[in-house]
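Checked the freezer inventory, then went back to the computational side. Two predictions to log before the end of the day. The first one is the construct we discussed on Monday; recording sequence and tokens without edits.
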Amino acid sequence: MLVQTLVALICFGVSTITAFPSHALALPPGSGVMEVETPGVDGPIVVHYHRGSGHSADDPIIVVLPGGGRNGDSYRDSWIDSAEQYDLLVLAPSFDERRFPGPINYNLAGMIADDANLRTLETVTLREAPEEWLFARIEAIFDAAVARSDSAQTQYDLFGHSAGGQIVHRMTLFAPDTRIRRALAANSGWYTIPSSQTAFPYGLDGAPMDEQQLETAFERDLVVFLGELDNASETRGHLRHTPETDSQGLHRLARGQSFMRLAAEQATSKDAEGFAWECAIVIGVGHDYRRMGQAAAEYLYGASENVGICDTQ
């Protein structure tokens, strides 16, 4: 018989749950940590959660993907007020550097092998098994949370900021069978544009996708969620600058608008029915995951007062 271990530590209102294996254990209200076993990984994935005090089986679950710092705890904390206001279960995984090494590998959701030339990305080797990509692990995290909270939800919302936003839009493209209800990709540094004229990972040439999958992706509820003030070129910062990324724009705001414009053009050229992607801009906010997360919660579950429509012309 498999043995389940439950460790409940109550300290300053925070509980920790360690589960082996990762099926139903109670997920109490408040903030805590749960560990989820997924295939092909040495050890469980740490997921920081907050379950609103009013969250019930019929209330939403949202997965929040952190930026390059992998700081799921900080991202979870930034969503606590929203979780309480809107009765949410927030799940913020930390995909640690040891098992998921390198900023580019994280941005690309583990789709590429470790031997890829990460500086130039001139030669990219795909991991052949999709279950090794982060998309499948996010699905496993959702399953574990549903079981441990007795949730009736069959879909989840998805928010990612910066590097997390890159994962979100690529999950929309390359994981058509995932159970995402609404996806918000916030302030991504660069994009995989939906064009077969550009080589993967900047485009779809050589990517694991066919025409039908692209049409399915266009039907997904994806919002490119941009900060109005996220318009610094960061030539010495964390923003990737290559000929391919700079062709998308010189800063995150421009790149997000360019991505949406190109996606709409591709959908039109392919006569894709039901193009559902949208672009929204958060007024007065830059590269700030806390304020972008608050705006995302209002956009998804409340009334958005400072969110407008992007200029993608």
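The second is the one RB wanted added to the comparison set:
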Amino acid sequence: MRPAGAQPTALAGQRCGLIAIVGKPNVGKSTLLNALVGQKISITSRKAQTTRHRITGIHTQGASQFVFVDTPGFQTVHGNALNKSLNKTVVGAVADVDLILFVVEAGSFTPADARVLALLGKTIPTLLIANKLDHVHRRGDIAPWLQDMAGKHSFAEFVPMSAKNAKDIERLLGICERYLPEQAWWYADDELTDRSERFMAAEMVREKLFRLTGDELPYTSTVVIDKFEEEAGRGKQKRLLRIAATIVVERDGHKAMVIGDKGERIKRIGMETRIELEKLMDAKVFIEMWVKVRSGWADDEARVRSFGYE
């Protein structure tokens, strides 16, 4: 899992390690990753299964480099080819890391949480991240809940927190740092992710798609980037990115939903994606979008792979 080109020898005191972020869908894993990295690299929405890929976020401070791995929420409701691929990603992510952050909602432990916890071995240190602490009305209930959680797994430490609280994020980084092995950094100190701009473009389109359609659109809808071309800027002008994206849905009714009345919804998806990408990539962005129907794609292993899922 060591990236190609990583420097072979560590400078004095350097630490670097892999930290997997795991949990059931919608416990705030992507929000936590973005907060730990200090910039948005993983998309978020209220819809379960928003994260579909293993996304690496890099945070370097002082002599330490944290390499965080955000994973899809472990899915047990649907057994289609897409979800089998996502679950395989989760299992692979926890197999060879230095530390695991097991994220749950503070004060809650559901059967879905238990199924994720069952994937975790006892040889890799695991922190219980009791997220969304700001949603807990009676803080006195947390102590007995933590005692109960201690009996479910040999957690190295318990970290009640909110991913939206900057002080909690700094405290979590300090805790994680103790588990990083002394070794050379894998990435330059200004890198934030190992994912390509093309990949990030697809993710941002998908985020806006789900945010603007809400629960109307099935989670199996996906996005494919057909074209990603870059033109250098002239003088003080920013570079130009020309992007063509296809939104893939499973039914004609879903296609009409994405396009919206007189094309208004897909125009808004494109506009919000462009604004976000221009900020993220420091470039001028021109983006075109189409919607295509591919019935049953999430049950087709070959098509799942062709759309970029492992």
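For RB: The radius of gyration is 20 Å. The chain is about 30% helix and 20% strand. Let me know if you want it refolded.
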